[in-house]
Inverse folding.
């Protein structure tokens, strides 16, 4: 009982983060019928700024990091991305009324990583003074790209089998290139390269760091409003998507937390790094994933995979998942 009581108190404290308040505030504004609109160009600029900051800081840290210590978390990130898609495909295959390509797209989106959710986790860890390796957010593409590629490849194989009745080749390399060219991964990789190869510490500290939390609060407002608007779309498809979106983020995050704990025991992966890994696994891509899947699986219904992600998955991951994993780390690691 003492363990559960302590866990609940820690969880409630995490849930009171002001960052989450902006997400909930955006949902309330939309629910009340407000005409407030934030232009998409501003949204894209904010996302670019957040990812550049994460990439720059990660690149600077990688220069001084023990690459051997990164190897196991990077491998686990790949494994988690692939595992999430495989588990999602299996679950959707067992449910009635689910179109296979829609299920594959949904599993791919939930296997990919949300840059905004990752940014929220970074802020909350810093607020709690929980250390994490600055290169930990750079694990993002190790999980994101394999998940998207696997979902698209499986969907294309399925569709070609239906059409031609036999196995045909899928251009995997083209899918990889399209994923790497996506706006989110391009910004993150650019930031990593600049942080790794240039003396960018001053611009990080004087420009990107001071703006980070303010931009994040605006992003949370936008995501809250979009989450509420997407609920209407989700109602038009099978309710199984909403159930999956409510449960999957926490299930995925707990799997990653367990693997992160193994990395902690074997290579000293920090408690904050374990939380970062769990949050990435629990998140579902809101930037790079949707356009990649739209192009890679054009026959899939966006109301299913984007509706499930935006209206249910992302709020669950941010409002419940992040506080849960931080509180769990505080208990497990005695922080």
């Amino acid at each position: 009982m003492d363990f559960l009581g302590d866990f609940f108190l820690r969880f409630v404290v995490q849930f009171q983060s002001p960052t989450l308040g902006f997400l909930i505030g955006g949902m309330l504004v939309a629910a009340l019928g407000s005409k407030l609109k934030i232009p998409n160009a501003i949204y894209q600029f904010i996302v670019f700024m957040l990812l550049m900051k994460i990439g720059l800081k990660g690149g600077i840290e990688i220069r001084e990091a023990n690459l051997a210590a990164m190897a196991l978390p990077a491998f686990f990130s790949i494994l988690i991305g692939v595992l999430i898609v495989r588990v999602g495909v299996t679950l959707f295959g067992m449910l009635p009324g689910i179109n296979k390509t829609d299920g594959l797209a949904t599993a791919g989106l939930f296997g990919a990583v949300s840059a905004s959710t990752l940014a929220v986790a970074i802020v909350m860890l810093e607020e709690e003074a929980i250390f994490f390796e600055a290169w930990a957010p750079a694990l993002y593409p190790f999980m994101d790209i394999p998940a998207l590629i696997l979902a698209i490849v499986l969907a294309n194989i399925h569709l070609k089998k239906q059409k031609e009745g036999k196995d045909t080749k899928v251009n995997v390399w083209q899918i990889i290139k399209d994923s790497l060219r996506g706006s989110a991964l391009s910004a993150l990789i650019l930031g990593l390269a600049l942080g790794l190869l240039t003396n960018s510490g001053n611009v990080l500290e004087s420009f990107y760091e001071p703006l980070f939390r303010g931009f994040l609060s605006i992003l949370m407002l936008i995501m809250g409003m979009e989450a509420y608007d997407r609920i209407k779309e989700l109602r038009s498809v099978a309710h199984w998507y909403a159930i999956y979106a409510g449960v999957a983020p926490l299930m995925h995050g707990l799997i990653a937390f367990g693997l992160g704990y193994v990395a902690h025991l074997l290579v000293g992966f920090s408690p904050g790094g374990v939380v970062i890994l769990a949050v990435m696994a629990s998140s579902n891509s809101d930037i790079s994933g949707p356009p990649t899947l739209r192009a890679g699986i054009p026959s899939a219904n966006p109301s299913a995979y984007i509706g499930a992600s935006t209206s249910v998955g992302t709020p669950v991951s941010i409002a419940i998942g992040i506080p849960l994993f931080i509180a769990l780390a505080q208990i497990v690691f005695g922080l």
